[in-house]
Structures
1.
Amino acid sequence: MSKKKFILLSILKTWLFSTIISTVLLIVFMNLTKPEVSEHPRNCDMSGLAYGLVIIWLLFLSIASFSSLLSFLRSFQSKIKTALCWFLLPIIFMIYYFFMITEGQKISGEDVLFFLIANFPWLAFWTFYYSQFSRIYFKEIDK
């Protein structure tokens, strides 16, 4: 399999698997933190906004991960520069996302948990595919 095809499939699989896992974790989180039912139920449930935010956020992370294709340029052919290509832009987006959801206010446990639900599955899969890529790619260079 070519390296470009491997990266593109990695981006697609990372987005798909992390979206499924994050959505399931978010469903569990929302059910555990659901307020008690009162006499007058709310007419508007904002949980759909959280699901949409996570799915769109994971799409943005996947788009940012296209920076990994820079690792094919000659100037990015070292281990450190390849890791920067794979992780720098997504990590910058994750930091921005964290400050966006906290809105500059005091950070609560729910904010941190929501941040982890939205980012950790994607980061875990992306790290796995990077390790596969670097194992294959740098083995070829060392020959």
2.
Amino acid sequence: MPNTKRRKPALKLPEIKPGSWRGEILGSCTVNFGQVVQPGPPRQSVEFTYMIMPGLFTMPEVRFTWPGVIMIMTPTPMKTDFPDAGFLFRAAHLPSLHLSLEVTRGQFSDMLRMMETTRLKDFHFTLQDEADGSWPVYSWGMSATSATRGP
């Protein structure tokens, strides 16, 4: 008997390319606060604060929209060097991306207020060429809807 089973074509995901990307925040986020002791010398307790939210990332050519996760972090006092605005990582075994952005403490507070009222909606970011398995973020921005009030 002839074999009538057909092979399913393998899904070929597009290459991640540098350039201007667009994104959309899909839902609510989780906000995480904490502290961890860093070994010394001298031993030091350091705070951490970050938010994680689901998102979609659209490539510059609009060929494909990737599902993914956005992580927005504030730096610890121990980190003083900020050569990039963040990084984009590709998941090894899933068709998804992880966008990690670094913000100042003040910017995080402003974003948190917008997030609480679900006013952050879309964002954009510019990727540079791949370096060591990730793509450095050159710039990024988010828009928020304004709260309208009646007369």
3.
Amino acid sequence: MVFDLKTVYLDKLLFKEFNLTEDKIKSSHFYDTDLEQDKEFYEITSFSDFFTKPGTGTVLVKEIQLGTMLTEVLILISFDEESGIVEINFSESELIEDNRLDKEKCLKLLEYFLSLMEHYDLKSVRFGYEPAVDDDTCLIELKPDVTQIKDLVDRL
């Protein structure tokens, strides 16, 4: 999944929506350009402030609730002062049950991100294989005017 986000929303997204805490994080890496040193997730009190300077960081989460529980999720955060990109990567097996796509899990995931779109001024959320930003690897693009997300899941 990949979406653009304004920097001012980053703390709220990471701490309130994704509920990221030190105990849920398997590993992380951020580089502080001012101090010229690596930082861990727990060492940064405000990501909105941290990313007022261009930078990138990664967080590997043990498990995260995104409408449905996902495990071993890699969150890539790449920001440039006012806005940036949040990319969320996980194994496709997270959405497979009995060798079939679990459409209920997919639906819950899409509903969750449709709700986030309303609260975080997201223009779209792209779901697909990496890189989901490319049209040929994007399976679904959620936009604010999408109302029939069940139809999108049924086409998968």
4.
Amino acid sequence: MVWWKRTWNGIGGLQRRVGGRSVTDEDEGIGAERQRPSRLTDAAVALLLAVADAAALAGVALLMFIVGMSHSGPPGGTPAKSEDVSPLQLAVVWFVPCALAVSCYVHARLRMPITSVVQGLFCVIGTTLAIGQTNMLLSFT
């Protein structure tokens, strides 16, 4: 625990040398934009985005189910038809995980750790669903 506290204080206390004197971010006037939002704001944004992400991923899962059922043939038979996978279909499949990854990065840069972790978890779930949907689309060819 002592190591962590010493490391954290060392990272927070980094200073640069400018013109022979040490200057911190607060001295340059950019400290206001570097301060992170309150924990309450972070938790509220995380909750709001978690609900939105859950709805988006549920929609993706429903879409996977509908597309998979529409391409399945009669029981014991082969799929109804064979078609190529267009790059547009793959772009649609991978849009949600990419958006979640960007959101995770942005919230980490905004110093909102709760929201960043929630977005990261949904990014992992979205990537897993995208891999499954890509495999499903490629199996129809």
